[in-house]
Amino acid sequence: MVSGPSGVGKDTLIKMLLKTTDGIYRSISATTRSPRPGEVDGSDYYFLSKEQFEQDILGGKFLEYAQYGPNYYGTPQEAVETRCLTGEDVLLEIEVQGAQEIKRKLPHAILVFLLPPSIEELERRLRNRGTDSEERILDRLSIAKKEIELVRLYDYKVVNSDINKAADELRCIVQAERLRVVN
Ligand code: 5GP
Questions:
Q1: Which residue range forms the structural domain that includes residue 68?
Q2: Are 132 and 126 in contact (CB under 8 A)?
Q3: Whose CA is nearest to atom 5 of ligand 1?
Q4: Using one digit for the tens of pLDDT, what is the confidence trace for 40-83?
Q5: Among 118, 122, 114, CA closest to 95
Q6: Residues 110, 1: contact at Cβ < 8 Å?
Q7: Under a CB-based contact definition with an 8 Å cutoff, are residues 144 and 125 in contact?
Q8: How many Å lie between the centroid of ligand 1 and the Cα of residue 81?
Q9: Which residue is closest in CA terms to ligand 1's atom 17?
Q10: Mean pLDDT of residues grouped by 10 in the chain (183 residues)?
Q11: Nearest residue to 29 (alpha-carbon basis) of 87, 88, 91
Q12: Helices (H), 91-162
């Protein structure tokens, strides 16, 4: 699982990891937030209405779900279970509550936290991205400050000040974990 505040560069780092490392299935989450420009339904997320999402919660379709800001986000259970059974590594990009929930259900899961070099840099990146309103940027920054305090619950942390170095470190974590002796 990879967590980190909004704007830290999770998507870019995950794309770099998947390009250079075989045998990883990236889980596609469901969300009730609207697609950002360029995001594709069924590829970046499954974009659902609030009603559909709540119906899926009741139907037991999520391995975990959480509210983040005004929206729901959830991990579809079936796709993850199927991949785990076939021995593939599954990568979830997920916020901290959801990550803790998965760790409780699947204790062998590995948690990696991506950190920005500083809060000021994170704010600059969120503003440069230009996809959120001022209110959402402030909301994301306030969530980020709380999330960063929870890094102690994670197995690894990677600081994204240099994107290539951070991508290398993420790759190293995957390689090291694949070499682990499981008792
Ligand atoms: P964004 O709106 O920036 O795509 O995502 C907001 C937050 O939701 C990020 O921290 C992201 O990691 C998290 N997130 C994405 N998918 C899931 C999910 O399936 N479950 C949970 N709990 N969080 C998710």
A1: 2-179
A2: yes
A3: 6
A4: 999 999 999 999 999 999 999 999 999 998 999 999 999 999 99
A5: 114
A6: yes
A7: no
A8: 19
A9: 94
A10: 92 96 96 95 97 98 94 96 92 95 94 94 88 88 91 96 97 97 81
A11: 91
A12: 96-105, 119-129, 134-148
Residues with a CB atom less than 6 Å from ligand 1: 3, 6, 29, 33, 64, 66, 68, 73-75, 93-95, 98
Q: What atom in ligand 1 is closest to the CA of residue 45?
A: 16
Number of domains comprising the chain: 1
- CATH code assigned at 100: 3.40.50.300
Tokens of 80: 């993850």
What SS3 class is residue 138? helix
CA torsion angle for 11, 62, 66, 13 (degrees, to 10)?
Answer: -10
Pick from 153, 137, 103: which is nearest to 6 by CA? 137
21-26 — which CB contacts under 8 Å span 24+ positions? 21/171, 21/174, 21/175, 23/88, 23/89, 24/88, 24/89, 24/90, 24/91, 24/174, 25/79, 25/83, 25/88, 25/89, 25/90, 25/91, 26/90, 26/91, 26/93
- Round to whole Å and give the CA distance between 161 and 164: 9
Residue 131 is which amino acid?
T
Tokens 């299935």 -> residue: 25
Angle at which helices 10-20 and 163-178 cross, to 10°: 50
